[in-house]
Amino acid sequence: MSFRKKKGKQTIIFHKPPVIKSWASIVGPKEGEGPWGKYFDKVLPDYLDGQTSWELTETKMLRDAVTMTLEKQAINKDDVDVFLAGDLLNQIISANYAARELAIPFLGLYGACSTMAESMILGAILIDGYFYDQVVAAACSHHYTAQRQFRFPSEQGVQFAPSSQWTATAAGAVLLYNDMSPGIKVTCATVGRVIDKAQKDPNNMGAAMAPAAVDTIKTHFTDLGRTPDYYDLIITGDLGEVGYELAKELFIKEGLPPMENFNDCGVLLFSKKQSDINAGASGCGCSAAMLCGPLLRKMFSEELKKILFVPTGALMSPISTFQGESIPAIAHAVAIELL
Amino acid sequence: MSFRKKKGKQTIIFHKPPVIKSWASIVGPKEGEGPWGKYFDKVLPDYLDGQTSWELTETKMLRDAVTMTLEKQAINKDDVDVFLAGDLLNQIISANYAARELAIPFLGLYGACSTMAESMILGAILIDGYFYDQVVAAACSHHYTAQRQFRFPSEQGVQFAPSSQWTATAAGAVLLYNDMSPGIKVTCATVGRVIDKAQKDPNNMGAAMAPAAVDTIKTHFTDLGRTPDYYDLIITGDLGEVGYELAKELFIKEGLPPMENFNDCGVLLFSKKQSDINAGASGCGCSAAMLCGPLLRKMFSEELKKILFVPTGALMSPISTFQGESIPAIAHAVAIELL
Fold first, then answer.
1. Which of B8, B334, B329 is CA-nearest to residue B194?
2. Which of B194, B205, B316, B327 best probes binding to A when mutated, by most A CB atoms within 10 angstroms?
């Protein structure tokens, strides 16, 4: 009988919570100009960063975020047991090509913008279950690779909808480590279900993702008998302004108490004064870089002691949208605590 | 310290090997006409099976394979702890939309044609590590969705290269179960690294994947101190004829003893008399259906007692190929034994 999750529940409780021993984030120029610029390890000088295509730049960002994470603790990449990562590109090529160069045993993931949570949950499971000792979990996205794959080539100059979100150029990586000494730890996690409320507008992914975020967060509290005030911060992936407001309404509908401590990476990443942002940021890299930049730094300085990190993913594709399908979404919750 | 994997090794040894309690496979008409037709649970009457698009058919195949797997043991889907699955389509829409309808907590994977191994390894980890009790692992592919996404619309009538493989229309699912009683069990697993020998021809994926298969299989034997004759059958995912012959050469080069018990799902799925097969079968569904059809049936009847199942994945995308990248590949090995 499993003892890390009760029957009928979705939340896993780690018995020997893995420590987040190291982390790193890299962002694009626009993200660097935003309110959190100084919290990221590296801001790219431009969107190519010396590469010949945006796709190569995205792969390099992911690989560099992993390398920086390991260098900070003088860890040799050959000592890492497994690399768990994903991105938004077709066939997750950024993660695949980064894994080729890192040469670490690799498990590729696709959870759209929820990928950072998925990689961290599986990483924590691998350590807590006594399978591995050192795991790297990571995710990335690039504005211009996403634009040409999901929307229109940027050169076409199509106008954004007010509810649309700006895909972040960003990567984040963490090193999860088997260590019983005090530190920033992954203490429990709620694996989400796919939720679809029949929203069909791909320019309003926040509205599609909000119900999934609310379902996972409510399940997390119910499973553990916790109230939202247990955490200093409950932060969703990238609902953006529209999804964030909708999530707040849904929390009330679902009978949850008011949450002053609820925020969203998509709302926070950019300043409202920045151009073309519309409803905020999105992309796997948005929540990954917010975690591996400002959030973990604030935990390290003890400004934040307990956070619930809830990246959200919209699970459609251009072809499913074209074929008239609605947008399914998912959210996974990761509890991170200073212990 | 992890005790399910030794430091510096890639192979996990399960302490409480999860049982494959149930399984099901569904294939398309062409696969049904092949030599293993009678071993599959269902052969589709045509490539649409009552749906309005091939993409919807692919999703339905995956969902139906899961439902059949659960029905065989009268398991309620609400009692399944997690669903692990992936496919070849952009943003793994077949798995996402199947997960929406199944409403089981979901972790999406992308390992190209290695996905069935990835899902089974993570599923076995979740059970052996005392996280979950019942996990469904699955993968699927559809010939016509893959053709229009990766190659040319079938209507265009482009001729296949002799080294090209026919993407299988097939789905397979297993129910992994926390059960100490005798049965067909997942006993150990080797997580592969991404290997790239600079092969650039997307019409010859077998040649790109063979080095990855050989690397993982050799590592498996080295890690465990086993020789190939430990297994009744060592079966790779979908190298096809070209990759299979190359793998045999590479085994000799790597100093492994001759393996009479080595075969390949891509070589086996179709008969050589069938039209347009060229070098054999490919697709996530090829190895998934071969496992969840003939192979597990032969283990159930005790014709096979120990197999090493090694699905292989080519990790490129049309855009990476277009940009001149070579094809990285991966293979994961899953040891399945009658205990």
1. B329
2. B194
